[in-house]
Structure formats: C-alpha cells, structure tokens
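Issue: ligand-bound run for manganese (II) ion - logging full I/O for the record.

Environment: standard queue, default settings, no custom constraints.

Inputs:
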Amino acid sequence: MHTYTEENYLKAIYKLSEHSEEEVTTNAIAELLETKSSSVSDMLRKLAEKDLIHYTKYRGVTLTEAGRQVAVRIIRKHRLWEVFLVEKLGLGWEEVHPMAEELEHIDFERLIERLDAFMGYPKRDPHGDPIPSASGEVEMPRSCKLSEMNLATPLLVTGISNHTTAFLQYLDKLDLGLGTKLVIDEIMPFDRSMLVTINQGKQLHLSHEVAKNILAVVSESQR
Amino acid sequence: MHTYTEENYLKAIYKLSEHSEEEVTTNAIAELLETKSSSVSDMLRKLAEKDLIHYTKYRGVTLTEAGRQVAVRIIRKHRLWEVFLVEKLGLGWEEVHPMAEELEHIDFERLIERLDAFMGYPKRDPHGDPIPSASGEVEMPRSCKLSEMNLATPLLVTGISNHTTAFLQYLDKLDLGLGTKLVIDEIMPFDRSMLVTINQGKQLHLSHEVAKNILAVVSESQR
DNA sequence: CTATAAATTTAGACAGGTCTAAAAATAAGT
DNA sequence: ACTTATTTTTAGACCTGTCTAAATTTATAG
Ligand SMILES: [Mn+2]
Ligand SMILES: [Mn+2]
Ligand SMILES: [Mn+2]
Ligand SMILES: [Mn+2]
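Outputs:
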C-alpha cells in the first residue's frame, strides 16, 4: 500500500501531534526519525500530494483523516506485536521495541485480526500504551507524568513514555514496572528529584528525568 | 544486514540450485522473481562483488558459502513463521506463504530462537518442507514426486512443492494433505493422470500436473 | 564453418529516498 | 523597522533497484 518510509513518517507525525494541537514542524520530524530536515521537506511534499497530510510550506503539518488512519493502524500492529513478543515468546519489555518497529509494517488483515484474537484482544501493550481498535479508535488514557503528581497520594504506575532499552532496564533494576503502587514521600527542590516508596516497601530516589517518563494515576483503592 | 531485495535474490538462487548441481541461469532467476533478466544481471554483478555468489558472465551462478548461509537463514525464518501462523494463529496452509514472504526478512536472533522454542522446535513446515537448523543444516527429505511412483504401493504424502493458494485450496477440497495415505490404482497412459485411493476410502482422479507437485514416500507400515 | 536464434549483458532513463550546500522565508532582538 | 539568527525549502548529486532497447556472447542448425 504505502512504503515503509512513508509509514514511518506518518507514524512520526502522529506521535508528535498526539499530545498537542500544534502543527508538527519539519525539524521535530527530522529529529525523531534521525534524518535531515531537507529529506523531511521532500517527503512532506510527497505526502501532501497523496493527501495524507495537510501541509503549508514553512508552516508545519497535520495528518488528514486518511493519514491518521494509516498511522493508527501501524501503531495498532506495533503494539499487538509487542504484546505477543512479551506474553507469548517471553521476551523482555526492554527488547521488543526494535522488533515491533519492523513487524508493524507487515500488512495482512487476517494476520492482524488473528494475532489480536490469539492475544485475547488486549487493551494495552507491555509499556502501558493503548492498542487502537481495528476501526482506528484510540482510548486516550488520562494518566499523568509522575513528575507532576502530588506528595503522599497513593499512585499506580500505568505507563512508560520512553521505550529505550536503557531506560526500561533501569526500571527493571529498580523493581518498578506497570502496576507498581507508589507514594511520593519527598521532592527535592534543587533538582526536582524525588523519594518514593514502592509497594509499601522499598524506598527509591528518582531523578526528575526518570519521573517525567513514568505515567501514573491516583490509585483506585483510596477512593 | 542485507537489503530485502538481495535476500530475495539469494533465496531464489538457493531454491533453483537446491535440486540440481547445475549453475543457475539469469533467466531462471528472472522468471522466479517476476523481474527482467537485465535487472537480474545487474544484481548478480553486485552480489558477486559482495562475495555472496560465484559468477562468471554468461555462464550462470552458484552461491558461495556466505551466500548459502544467508539464504538458508531466510528459509529457516520463513518456515518457522509458517508453522506459527498455522499452528498458533489458526490460519490456513494456503494463505500463509505471502505473509511468511515478508516476515522472513525480519532478523533478530532472539526472536527467531524464541519463536523456534515456542513452536517446540518443529522439523517441518505446514507444507512438509524441512526447517533448517540455527547452524544452517538442512535435512534433505528423500521423498519423491507422486507422478514418479509405482502402482499399488502404500504411500504417505509428506510434502507439497507448489505453495500457491489455488493449488493448496484444491488439495483441501480433495481432502488430500500431509499425512494422507494413498495408493495409486491406475495411470492413464495418454495424459499420465492417475486414479488414487486415499485413506483406504475415497478414490480421486489426479492430473499429471497435480501429481508432480505432491511429494510422497513409501509408507512405513508395509515394511 | 556459417547463419540464425536464444540467452545474457550493457547503456541510458527513471522512481524513491537520502545527503550537503545554498537560497528563501520566518522569527527574534534591539 | 532593520539586522541577525533560525527554520525550512530548493538544487544538485548519489545510491538502490527497476525497465526498455540495443549490443554482445553463446548455442543450434544446416
Ligand atoms: Mn514500542
Ligand atoms: Mn510499546
Ligand atoms: Mn512458503
Ligand atoms: Mn512452506
């Protein structure tokens, strides 16, 4: 249908516009895709030609409905494969992302549908991200960055917004993962690092950078 | 490592040299890959440059050991994925080949190894083809074409050498698959079609073209 | 051995994608 | 408003892989 490259551009634009209403910039895409902005400019022209994006030169881009459908479908496949790799093949959540980056481009309706069924129609991937439905709906979870939450409130870790191997391995070492209960005990003003207690036990010291990449909700159990 | 295209050429050369000692010709590759012979010539020059094939202009090609390793590894992945698609996802043997054509290019050592383990280290794919080992050994099954076997001998179907959807669906309709026991009752001299009895029951009429693509061995039970 | 046919390779063009360097447009600073 | 800095786009080149048409080599048939 589309080339792998086109798909990667559409996915990048989707991810960059996911959490804000602003137009996506050429440089932002170049940085995410580790390519040059001149290459991005070129590709934007082509994608606009195919009506996959709205593009005004020098002004940035947004996805058209057609472009959004393509992007969401890729993300659906990416996350379904990640569930498979972790749940069925027993691979670690820190190593599956690069594999899913390639598997996501394979496009057979029956394969996706069967994979979904085999996994029991999962709602979230191993990093806590929502799996878009076959019709392209994405449930936007209302979790917040740990770095923006309040002291002394029972919290539940529901997502990780940095999928690099290094970061996920670090969380493993800390014994911190999806479903971990935690309370912020103290926030250091000078570097915004924090002390937290996990699962009513061990106390950890998390840098602001780490806390920014952990998503949490206020724990149900206290309501 | 290599591009998908290079991999497809190496696989094609492997398949064409699998059952004969002769050099593989440019035209044979072009036909298998549904491309033009001028494109093949070009690619052969590049593959020889990378020492993946032995190539003498106008004389045909053979794989080097390095080239063979690449080809066999692709085939290993192709067949492992086919087992997964049929055994775990419940897809039909007639529809998995195009999917495996794409999955075979995804190359992560740990993924292959885990997939192999998940499937219980299968020896054959859903079409009866042997799955190469991780170290590149391929057990060459000594089955023969049904079209070349003798009358009145108990036979066992062990492989299918045509993976097209149309052919496999036809076999499904005939109730003929891997593991089917059969005896050749009669061979019509004028068109070499044959009457066979399967599983000691139904009698079928198979064209020579069909019989050529069914692989069988003399059934153990009679020895 | 020579003429023709078949197979193969080369030449030249093109499409998709990337890069560097240069030009153009927009944003920022005073 | 004017000048400078930043962002973005264009120009020109290159790489991979494909094609058609033409040239070359090898095979086949008298
Ligand atoms: Mn991922
Ligand atoms: Mn994920
Ligand atoms: Mn196959
Ligand atoms: Mn097969």
